[in-house]
């Protein structure tokens, strides 16, 4: 079956612009996560959804970042008034708590965001 | 911010040798996981060890966990060129949130 997909794979934008990053999780996975990974670093947790609701958004760096998952499947990470420091690879992962290896997260290939 | 630390930051060995990477953490955990990331590709889950386990094997991988020292190690035996990648430990304080280390960059020389 298909894995986690993310679009676009690359996004170049100018400082101050608005961007949306999309994640399509594995079908049937109820949990969805967004991470940010800077060069040479491990992923940094941003937000976690269980179904349609954000169960934990404590990792969002500030109110310019927002994420939605209106139907409990596809999620969109939205960044307003982008800054150069937002440049990173944004990773999405999904998992299915309570079934099999409950804590395994399956990652998408990421969206590389560059803010000029 | 990162709360896990991995050691070494980089490791270069000859094909066929064993590679050992270490991970330390600071809080109590529910489980600890190891992931691999090849250049330009996504993260791939390798192995998960729960806090009540001390050792786990998967193929050429062996993971140990010492909760008293808040540390874990990943051993890759009989390394291959295809093992060249960055390896990350990630530990969970709950069933979903993972805290990640900065990774160990492993290079296998042919």
Question: Describe it for me?
Answer:
With 116 residues, chain A is mostly beta strands. Helices cover 0% and strands 47% of the residues of chain A. Chain A has strands at residues 5-7, 10-13, 19-24, 31-37, 44-50, 53-56, 65-68, 75-79, 88-95, 106-107, 111-115. In chain A, strands 2, 4, 5, 6, 9, 10 and 11 form a 7-stranded mixed sheet that branches. A 4-stranded antiparallel sheet of chain A has the order 1-3-8-7, with no helix packed on it. Chain A is globular and about 40 Å long. Chain A starts with a strand and ends with a strand. With 110 residues, chain B is an all-beta fold. Chain B has strands at residues 5-7, 10-14, 19-24, 31-37, 43-50, 55-58, 61-66, 71-76, 85-92, 98-100, 104-109. In chain B, the strands form 2 sheets. In chain B, strands 2, 4, 5, 9, 10 and 11 form a 6-stranded mixed sheet that branches. Chain B has a 5-stranded antiparallel sheet with strand order 1-3-8-7-6, with no helix packed on it. The chains are: A mainly beta (116), B mainly beta (110). Chains A and B meet through strand 4, strand 5, strand 9 and strand 10 of A and strand 4, strand 5, strand 9 and strand 10 of B.
List unreliable stretches of 5+ residues of chain A. Answer: none
Question: Radius of gyration of chain A, rounded?
Answer: 14 Å
Strand content of chain B: over 45%
The helix/strand class of chain A is: mainly beta
Helix content of chain A: under 10%
Shape of chain B: globular
Number of H- or I-type helical stretches of chain B: 0
- Write down how many β-strands of chain B occur, each being a DSSP E stretch of 2 or more residues: 11
Oligomer: heterodimer
- State the largest interface: A-B, 28 and 25 residues
Gap from first CA to last CA of chain B: 36 Å
Give me the strand/helix succession of chain A. Answer: EEEEEEEEEEE
On the 0 to 100 scale, the average pLDDT of chain A is 91
Q: Find the structural class of chain B using helix and strand composition.
A: mainly beta
Could you describe the largest sheet of chain B, including whether it forms a barrel? 6 strands, mixed
Proportion of residues in helical segments of chain B: under 10%
Helix/strand order of chain B, N-terminal first: EEEEEEEEEEE
Q: Averaged pLDDT of chain B, please?
A: 90
Low-confidence stretches of chain B: none
Rg of chain B, Å, rounded: 13 Å
> Count of DSSP E strands of chain A?
11
């Amino acid at each position: 079956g298909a894995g986690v997909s993310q679009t676009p794979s690359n996004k170049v934008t100018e400082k101050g612009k608005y961007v949306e990053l999309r994640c399509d999780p594995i079908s049937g996975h109820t949990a969805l996560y967004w991470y940010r990974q800077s060069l040479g670093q491990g992923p940094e947790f941003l937000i976690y959804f269980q179904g349609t609701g954000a169960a934990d958004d404590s990792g969002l760096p500030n109110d310019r970042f927002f994420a939605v998952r209106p139907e409990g499947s596809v999620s969109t990470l939205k960044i307003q008034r982008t800054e150069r420091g937002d440049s990173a690879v944004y990773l999405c992962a999904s998992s299915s708590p309570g079934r099999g290896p409950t804590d395994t997260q399956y990652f998408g290939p990421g969206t590389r965001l560059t803010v000029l | 911010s990162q709360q896990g630390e991995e050691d070494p930051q980089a490791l270069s060995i000859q094909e066929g040798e064993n590679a050992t990477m270490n991970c330390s953490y600071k809080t109590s955990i529910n489980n600890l996981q190891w992931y691999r990331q090849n250049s330009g590709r996504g993260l791939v889950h390798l192995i998960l060890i729960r806090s009540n386990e001390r050792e786990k094997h998967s193929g050429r991988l062996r993971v140990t966990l010492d909760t008293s020292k808040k540390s874990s190690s990943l051993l890759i035996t009989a390394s291959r060129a295809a093992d060249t990648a960055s390896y990350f430990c990630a530990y969970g304080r709950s069933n979903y949130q993972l805290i990640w280390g900065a990774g160990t960059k492993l290079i296998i020389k042919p």
